[in-house]
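Worked example 2:
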Amino acid sequence: MIFLIIIGVLLFCLSIIIHEAGHFFTAKACGIRVDEFSIGMGPRLAHFHKGETDYSIRLLPIGGFCSMPGEDGQDEDGKPCTDPRAFCNKPKWQRFLVLVMGATMNIVLGLVLMAILLGQETAFTSTTISKFSSNSALQSAGIQAGDRFTNINGYKIHTDKDLTFALALANPDSVNFQVNRNGKTVEFNNVKLKTVTGTNGKKLTQLDFYVQPIQKNPLTLVQKTFSDTVSVVRQVWASLAGLVTGRFGLNDMTGPVGLVQVISQSASAGLQQSFLAAVNNIVYVIMIITVNLGIVNLLPIPALDGGKILFLLIEAIRRKPLNPKYAAIVESAFFALLLAFMAIVAVSDVMRITTGHGIGG
């Protein structure tokens, strides 16, 4: 089990490394000087210097950074940066590429991990019903074999992962379905599904239907890899929306502390089948995390890549950069808020591990 957890932690570190590598190699290609390439945050544990860059590993495995001169438009003394190789003195399109490539590499890693998982399948899962189990609630509601799910409670269904996600979020006592039947949309509202009681006492939807398989070949593997990764991205956005609207709380979130528990639980569940199944479960968790890392980093929040892209767009519209002094204050404030939020999530993780309930849950 310890070995599996180590695999999970290393894969998590890989998602951080590849994110920062996206920034690093793009900056190098654009002729921008990189002063430090760091994995982790906080106190430095180890480092070495090669060329003009210091490579370091830091204590807290909560991210990393690629330090470039002039990121805030100033040099180390707070004066306007005059170094021609500084980030702020490069064309806007180059700065945009440097900022966006971190998240892009995370999504590319997610695609690779998804392809590895799907490549082991003998066939893929569709969203078209093939048959029902006995006393099926869906069949009783009028849904038929051959119907293809297109929408559940307003959530569009394109893949089996969309289907699983939508059913997991739905109230099983009242679910609205849309299916495609012979090219026409047919609706079934307020359908009551069968349920089972989970270990936490909550009612969980019990699936009472089977879906048609999709033949595996190189074309369907590529298609399925992209469509399933897009499904994960959509789930990330839906989850973020749930946080904003209050549908999800801190107890539904996890940070680096809770990640070890998630990896452990995934490995344990997989080990009941085989060692490979345990590894695959961990790879799937990391795939979701790396896609999360990419998407969240693109949010227009100062201190994240998306916030820097926002400042860059404002600069393009104004045709002059924001005042470095005020931009630095805004970024510092949001960075402090981000650290505080991560600390709260970490405390919630510890509470959930020790008591079974996190903050607000």
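The two ends are 28 Å apart (CA to CA). The mean pLDDT is 84.
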